[in-house]
Design a protein that fits this description.
The structure is a homodimer of 405-residue chains. Chain A has 405 residues and is of the alpha+beta class. The first copy, chain A, has two domains: 88 residues, SH3 type barrels (Roll); 285 residues, Fumarylacetoacetate hydrolase, domain 2, CATH 3.90.850.10. Chain A has ten helices and 26 strands. The longest helix of chain A is centred in the N-terminal third of the chain and has 16 residues. The radius of gyration of chain A is 21 Å and the shape is globular. The mean pLDDT of chain A is 96. At the A-B interface, strand 7, strand 10, helix 7 and helix 8 of A face strand 7, strand 10, helix 7 and helix 8 of B. Chains A, B: Keywords: Calcium, Hydrolase, Magnesium, Metal-binding, Phenylalanine catabolism, Tyrosine catabolism. Chains A, B: InterPro entries: Fumarylacetoacetase, Fumarylacetoacetase-like_C, Fumarylacetoacetase_C_sf, Fumarylacetoacetase_N, Fumarylacetoacetase_N_sf.
């Protein structure tokens, strides 16, 4: 049974009081501000705080979640408890109802300001598949892969909110077999279905964030599409990794799901063999039972499960900071493509079409090796929530537009 | 002959009116604000603007240069002309002199807020040397190296001002020959002597910044030390590039040298063969005749020359944006290690000691394979300025501190 709210909430919608994700919304002529999703409504937290019904106004009368994200775990927990209280106790209805706005009437904006953006590579199935495709003569998994969560820094300035058009990037690429590189629009445009977490509370330089301190620093999770130009990426990446093949666009979902909402989704991750070094040891299981769906033009093409990820979020955070790099509020850490062992669990076109060798059939009779102009890619996810409920991540979506002349 | 200022300026100091670099300074109990260096003085531009003697106060009564950097080339030129006027025309002396502060009496802070940080790899000598050291069985230069300026995103949150202590990072590394990786403080800590430019004026998403538009967007140049843990880097970098081996610290110099001050330093870069693709073609010569010096504990160990860099700053900027990634104010682009053909022109310990095989002798009778705790690394640079003057970059310095327990 889900916990009852006096707000109408559909059982399958995933926006009950067990979720209460935060986002930034605006209406025409009004300033952007913080809201929480409940059912098909947005609860205006700026108005709620102005009315003295929730905490400190500085958190919520803001165009980003950063002020609230830095407030820390106790403030997050207190606000969450208060929201549950006012949304379940019928006696608050008259005071709260004026601050509910149908989500259809608002625009959802980028939820937070990104400080640094890191992208990992933590699905063993994805790593093995891309190894086979890109480095067919080598072992699919690099020798370091099971020793540490491989990652790299991406471009924070091109992390865009869901719905932002994705302009097909141009760049250098070399067609295999051709001696010379050429310049033009990417011919191998791809998506990558990922899950990301965002830091709220900074950490000190020179000190890492141990796996056990994950909840003290991390505010919540979003869905992320790491748009990728495979031809640019393949040509540029040696020896320093991806650059222009990734930096043109990264999309994130509008609602940030609090860490607390995902506690019921925690499951044991895959067995890690060899055992990781002590700084990567995690006392608690931090696999997350998130069920993703990837849609191209409304057709479901893949159903990756996040529980299959080899490296977990606390391990990623401990690794990224073990060299003494401090966390800043807004630091964003993405999982890498979420791919499972089955073809219909693969999280990007590169794998789904096996680099174009096995074009993917869409339900409309067309096929895809890579993305075409006009294609819309949408990633959704749900997780088990408290009291038998479901917790939804909503979606991250984007439509491919042609290269600008 | 240099242009005369009524402020006392030593001919060799490099802080004449031909330079006029910008920085952020503070004095005890006062707010950080913008200053310009002249001789051994800082001209307090916040005070000058409050007195109506230079442009708009919003530029200068700020703890970062970002507000002025976004103002654009016309504003930069107008302010520069005005500073030259008031510092050379004796009739302004009585009004201006009260706003000069000895540089010894101020603290210099981080000059700007970094948006994204990109690090290139644009010295052919450095690329060949590292290729020989890290990938001895392959061609030293990757096949893409002369086709595009290879680069990657670094961590913006760990770009620190000159003087910030550098804490030796810990992390995973595998000793060659050992089957298992281990964890501990880096045993191969290095510096990299680099030159970087910072963007002032943003560009639109989906549009690149052509080489000819460099001056419209770029505010100025700094020196940069890309501190590197070679053992961490070697183990983690395959296949996605450097991560923790670089992200613990990057240091930049305090003064930002305006692009205009470096016009007299422009020289033809090395011949580029094969000819780069059209989007990388540059009408004007943009090699820069900067003479760098690297000092360890006060001993000069290297004198790299920036004029030997294969890829130029306008080519780097055009490349980094050709995929449609927009520029933001504060985007920082570093050159990669500046190394020349001679041993005493190599810009990092990895090359100077040939990965520890040929330890470097310091003047104090000690040798170094890599950096030790307590070592201070200082990078300086000078360039020819207008009217036969010299333009100095000042220095970027940092001292290695032990890993925190």
């Amino acid at each position: 049974m889900t916990t009852d709210s006096w707000v109408e909430v559909s059982a399958d919608g995933g926006y009950g009081v067990e979720n209460l994700p935060y986002g930034i919304f605006s209406r025409p002529g009004e300033l952007p501000r913080v809201g929480a999703a409940i059912g098909d409504q947005v609860l205006d937290l700026a108005a709620m705080s102005a009315a003295g019904m929730v905490e400190d106004r500085r958190y919520f009368a803001s165009g980003s979640l950063n002020a609230f994200m830095v407030a820390g775990r106790a403030a997050w927990a207190a606000n969450r408890a208060r929201l549950v209280e006012v949304l379940t106790d019928e006696s608050y209805r008259d005071q709260v109802e004026p601050h509910l706005i149908p989500v259809a009437d608002v625009e959802l904006l980028r939820p937070f300001e990104v400080a640094d953006y890191v992208d990992f590579y933590s699905s063993e199935h994805h790593a093995r598949n891309t190894g086979r495709i890109f480095r067919p003569r080598d072992e699919p998994l690099p020798s370091n892969w099971k020793r540490l969560p491989i990652g790299y820094h991406g471009r924070a300035g091109t992390v865009y909110p869901s719905g932002t058009p994705v302009i097909r990037p141009s760049g250098q690429r070399r067609t295999p077999g051709e001696p010379e590189p050429s310049f033009g629009p990417s011919q191998r445009l791809d998506f990558e279905a990922e899950v990301a977490f965002v830091a709220g509370v900074p950490s000190a330089a020179g000190r890492g964030v141990p796996t056990g301190a994950f909840r003290e620093h991390v505010f919540g999770f979003v869905l992320l599409n790491d748009w990728s130009a495979r031809d640019l990426q393949a040509w540029e990446s040696r020896p320093l990794g991806p650059f222009l093949g990734k930096s043109f666009a990264t999309s994130i979902s509008s609602w940030v799901v609090p860490v607390a909402a995902l506690e019921p989704a925690r499951v044991p991750p895959p067995v890690q063999d060899p055992a990781p070094l002590p700084y990567l040891h995690c006392e608690e299981p931090w696999g997350l039972d998130l069920h993703l769906e990837v849609l191209i033009n409304g057709q479901v093409v893949s159903r990756p499960r996040f529980a299959s990820m080899y490296w977990t979020p606390p391990q990623q955070l401990a690794h990224a900071t073990v060299n003494g790099a401090p966390l800043r509020t807004g630091d964003l850490f993405a999982s890498g493509t979420v791919s499972g062992p089955e073809r219909d669990q693969r999280g990007c076109m590169l794998e789904l079409s096996w680099n174009g060798q096995e074009p993917l059939e869409l339900g409309d009779g067309t096929t895809r090796s890579f993305l075409e102009d006009g294609d819309t890619v949408t990633i959704r996810a749900q997780a088990p929530g408290a009291s038998g409920s479901r917790v939804t991540f909503g979606e991250v979506t984007g439509t491919v537009h042609p290269t600008r002349a």
